[in-house]
Specification:
618 residues, mainly alpha
């Protein structure tokens, strides 16, 4: 607002006159005094005419001195005083929303951005006016690309003691104003430089790696969200492995100390950036990396599940990817060193808790079938792998889900895979074969019959031959898990095979006196071998197995025999005596044979390919 009375104009004329006279002096000290006096008079009042007079008449000699002092970076005596005056001038002129309207303003901004990149000590300043000026500058659209490309807010944080002055929240507010691309004009978006942004992010990650400051973490994720919205993550190829390492380091600290809830709230963003934004760059290629990413995914889904349960906040984004990574970690559970990594089980048990609440409160009934199938598949695997005690509600919920699969021929094998896991977990006394005589023998017969039907079903076989994939898993690797390398998948299942062989090395069937159970063992052993070798059962083999299970059953799978299949031309399926067999399966109890079935299923149909097979099972 302009002065409205004679007195104001008189004061204005006097102030301007004194300023102009002072800055025209050839004495640098006189120029500095004139600048200080003008700022002192009008720091808390803004009149556009006086401001224009100030910037237009600002002495070139004094600016050159500012530049020399700031660039040399000497920290003693008058040099620090001159640098302090530079910042005071910058604060004064940057209060205007029309900043950089004059070429001298641009020079001041360029020098300011250069100064805060230095590692020399900052002058003693009241940071409140300075941060207020920064807020004004970043609110102006035309300034945003300059501040973003120059990493100005990060440099500002590193140069001045922001946290010590309790300015963290205002720093975060500035980050939001600057990096929220909703207000970024197209002209400014096109000015963003991927090369500079790459360097900026690497600087921020380096700082966070060494200091792990929450403010820097906040800034990092704010920038990443902006780049993600602008679809620039693939263009800004910063050090994603270092990003993962520092996030993982923080995660381990949080897990082991229960300190860092704000970090955990950002876990959905971490998962998104690692698994989606950098799917062509970041790879899961070791058990340690898988454990860390799976823990992040478990925290991510736990947070989302909790919000869904409490507030009915729906979520769909990337949940499949998260669940499948967790699923692979559950498959890998036997080969993980849990004594050194007890935290992984804790994360998975916590996730299981939230999924259980969702299931038992019928909340997943609101999901479409594909989502429900994925969640229930995970839930059964979690119960089985983590050996979690089941509740009556678990039994009711899972049995109801299993009933939805019955009769769906496309899901026959999926049903056998899930139902047998569920049954075996319920009957943890399987090792006590006496208990099977009265409680489980009939159920095992049904499970084996269902499995034989599934593996000999014409639709199933044709699907495998034509698509080389099992229904529902067609795009699992390519769409949801592109970051997991093929070599790592092979390594996981190779290690799982070794672990299984070692775990059951001293097993014996000598104590089994139940002829039915012995028969089931022999049939299941053959089914596992056939599945491992060729993925399905031909009609004759399936019929022979069914007749052995139940001579009164009428079996028809509508499967055409393959003339090139040696089994189709064989007269009988021979069930060898386990005492004379020497292969890896010969001495295994029934529950161990089912474990082999699960591992083969997961290798062939979920994470590997149908041509994968385990050696030395025949």
């Amino acid at each position: 607002m302009e002065p409205s009375n004679v007195t104001d104009f008189t004061e204005y004329d006097q102030a301007v006159h004194q300023y102009i006279v002072g800055v025209q002096s050839h004495d640098l000290a006189t120029q500095m005094e004139a600048v200080k006096n003008f700022i002192s008079d009008y720091l808390h009042r803004y009149f556009s005419k006086r401001y224009s007079v100030f910037i237009e008449n600002f002495p070139d000699e004094l600016f050159a001195d500012f530049k020399r002092v700031c660039e040399v970076g000497i920290n003693v005596g008058a040099y620090q005083d001159n640098k302090k005056l530079f910042f005071e001038v910058f604060i004064f002129i940057s209060r205007s929303a029309s900043f950089i309207g004059h070429f001298k303003e641009k020079l001041f901004l360029e020098l300011f951005l250069k100064v805060i990149k230095n590692s020399d000590s900052a002058p003693c300043l009241d940071l409140i006016p300075l941060i207020s000026s920064i807020e004004v500058l970043v609110s102006c659209d035309t300034n945003k690309s300059i501040f973003i490309n120059e990493n100005a807010i990060f440099n500002f944080y590193c140069y001045f003691p922001i946290k010590a002055n309790n300015l963290s929240q205002r720093f975060k507010d500035i980050c939001q104003r600057l990096y929220n691309d909703c207000g970024l004009p197209e002209s400014e978006k096109s000015n963003l430089c991927p090369v500079q942004l790459k360097e900026n992010l690497n600087q921020i990650i380096n700082r966070y790696s060494s200091c792990q400051e929450e403010d820097i973490q906040y800034m990092l994720f704010t920038i990443l969200k902006m780049l993600n919205r602008l679809r620039m993550l693939d263009k800004v190829k910063f050090n994603i492995n270092q990003f993962f390492n520092c996030m993982n380091s923080t995660l381990m600290h949080v897990i082991n100390t229960n300190d860092g809830l704000r970090f955990l709230r950002r876990m959905p963003n971490i998962c998104h950036f690692l698994l989606t934004g950098f799917r062509n760059v970041f790879h899961i290629d070791s058990i340690d990396t898988l454990m860390s990413i799976a823990a992040m995914c478990a925290i991510n889904i736990s947070i989302k599940m909790e919000k869904f349960i409490r507030y009915r906040i729906y979520w769909t984004s990337n949940y499949e990817m998260n669940f499948y990574i967790i699923y692979l970690a559950l498959v890998s559970f036997p080969i993980i060193d849990h004594n050194s990594n007890p935290w992984l089980r804790r994360m998975f048990v916590e996730l299981h808790h939230w999924v259980r609440i969702s299931i038992q409160n019928n909340l997943i009934e609101e999901f479409r079938f594909d989502w429900k199938f994925l969640i229930m598949q995970y839930y059964i695997k979690s119960i089985y792998t983590l050996n979690i005690p089941v509740t009556d509600q678990d039994i009711q919920s899972i049995n109801l889900f299993m009933n939805t699969l019955v009769g769906n021929k496309d899901l026959n094998l999926h049903f056998s895979y899930l139902n047998s896991q569920w049954f075996i977990h319920l009957y943890q006394s399987l090792k006590d074969y006496q208990s099977l005589r009265s409680t489980g023998s009939a159920q095992i017969q049904i499970i084996l019959q269902d499995l034989i039907v599934a593996l000999s079903d014409k639709r199933y076989i044709n699907k495998l031959k034509s698509d080389q994939k099992l229904f529902k898993y067609e795009n699992l690797r390519s769409h949801y898990l592109p970051m997991i390398t093929e070599d790592f998948i092979k390594s996981v299942f190779s290690q799982c095979q070794s672990q299984m062989c070692h775990a059951y090395n001293n097993q014996s069937l000598d104590h089994i006196d139940n002829e039915e159970i012995k028969l089931y063992n022999q049939i299941m052993r053959k089914v596992v071998i056939f599945l491992n070798e060729s993925n399905y059962l031909d009609q004759k083999t399936a019929k022979d197995f069914m007749q052995l299970l139940n001579p009164n059953i009428i079996f028809s799978s509508n499967v055409e025999g393959d003339p090139n299949d040696i089994r189709s031309n064989s007269d009988d399926v021979v069930l060898y005596n386990a005492s004379t067999e020497t292969n890896a399966l010969s001495k295994l109890p029934l529950h161990a044979l089912f474990n082999w079935f699960y591992l083969i299923y997961e290798m062939k149909f979920m994470f590997g390919d149908i041509n994968s097979k385990f050696a030395d099972l025949n």
